[in-house]
Design brief:
Shape: globular
Strand content: 15-25%
CATH class of the largest domain: Alpha Beta
Largest sheet: 7 strands, parallel
CATH architecture of the largest domain: 3-Layer(aba) Sandwich
Radius of gyration: 21 Å
Order of helices and strands: EHEHHHEHEHHEHEHEHHEEEHEH
Helix content: 40-55%
């Protein structure tokens, strides 16, 4: 597992959790791939997964984990018990330049070289790259987003406007290192036509976008209920309160726009574009990494009666996200071993804005994921025999 944003809250939590799982200090609570539906699917064992990554921060991983424990998110006893494993991972985290070193193509090659070196030094079958870095502001539309020739020219021109870091990392993973890739953030990544074409040519499985962990997860469970019962939802308002690094990042009006769009897209797909969906995210520093989301649903029922539903969801978002990125690493490894390429629509189960799929209803996504995993396991076994 190669994390982009390897010292952030999500990657740190996943690394601590993976180490604890490998040492059998905790049970795999919260991991979809540990459920009985996946008993017949040959997935990498927790102890077989090695972690490395990129980050712009040089804070030691163990120090970052202790900070999260001090804030109440991680158990101190677990962090202390896996300290040696965290130090080993820290040695495999490479510092990422905040601006490209040379042309953007040269920067991409440097990032890809780190991934290949990690794979070779550890003798790994494959590296799955997962972007869990901070949300970036979405850039203005540019010619290189639509045509491969314009993209190639921009990558080779030292004077061209820089592409988002998420895009450089995605190209490095998919097109140069040949690594399966998942984007767990709403940043640009591969989300424009020229980059999707590039990914399609790279013959590796990819998945995205923007992890579905809390409020949006609940919405995609409840919205199909209203639709199935013939109730007309008039409005679905939401408010999110959070602190920590995510709260500070999303306090930037430019950075928060992609998050707001991805959180509401599923509701409109499930209920229609006429539903009013006001949503805001507020930075409340004293909450730290504990996130609280409030939703107010106003619907119309039989004989013009009004229905109101209010929900409150409160959890550490990183502890919701961490098992999902471990699941994604295991499932993308399965896909790669079976020769699956391009966007894996069935992995939309994990995302707010799934690549290759317009399905947002959680129950249907769950069924599709299990069916896909069982089919892909058979396909992989056949490939190994052949």
């Amino acid at each position: 597992m190669w994390f982009v944003g390897a010292r952030g809250s999500v990657a740190t939590t996943a690394t601590v959790g993976l180490a604890a799982l490998a040492d059998e200090l905790v049970a795999p609570v919260g991991l979809t791939t540990s459920g009985p539906e996946f008993d017949g699917v040959a997935l990498p064992a927790f102890g077989d997964l090695v972690v490395g990554g990129h980050d712009v921060d040089d804070t030691p991983l163990a120090e970052r984990a202790r900070s999260l424990a001090a804030g109440g998110m991680l158990p101190s006893r677990i962090v202390d018990a896996v300290g040696a494993r965290l130090d080993a991972v820290d040695a495999d985290i490479r510092l990422l330049a905040r601006t490209p070193r040379g042309t953007q193509r040269e920067e991409i090659e440097l990032r890809a070289a780190d991934i290949r070196d990690f794979r070779d030094r550890h003798g790994l079958a494959r590296v799955v790259v997962i972007d869990v870095a901070s949300t970036e502001p979405l850039p203005a539309d540019r010619p290189e987003f639509h045509a491969r020739a314009a993209l190639d020219a921009a990558l080779d021109d030292p004077a061209s406007e820089p592409l988002p870091s998420s895009t450089l990392s995605a190209i490095a993973a998919v097109a140069v290192a040949g690594a399966p890739y998942a984007c767990f953030t709403p940043s640009l990544s591969l989300g424009v036509p020229a980059l999707r074409d590039l990914a399609a040519e790279s013959a590796v499985p990819i998945a995205g976008q923007d992890g579905k962990t809390g409020e949006t997860l609940l919405r995609t469970v409840l919205a199909p209920m209203f639709a199935s019962r013939g109730m007309r939802v008039l409005s679905w308002a939401g408010a999110n309160l959070l602190g920590g690094g995510d709260g500070a990042t999303l306090a930037d009006p430019a950075a928060v726009q992609s998050k707001l769009a991805s959180k509401n897209r599923g509701l409109h797909d499930l209920l229609g574009d006429d539903v009013v969906t006001p949503l805001h995210i507020d930075n409340v520093p004293d909450l730290g990494d504990l996130k609280t989301a409030w939703d107010h649903v106003h619907a119309e029922g039989f004989l013009d009666t009004r229905i109101t539903l209010q929900t409150t969801w409160s959890a550490y978002d990183s502890t919701l996200a961490a098992p999902l990125v471990i699941d994604l690493a295991r499932l993308l490894s399965l896909a790669d071993g079976a020769g699956v390429t391009g966007p894996v629509a069935e992995l939309g189960y994990f995302f707010k804005d799934p690549w290759g799929s317009d399905e947002h209803a959680f129950a249907r996504q769950a069924d599709e994921l299990v069916s896909w995993a069982l089919r892909t396991a058979v396909r992989r076994s056949a490939a190994q025999v052949a």
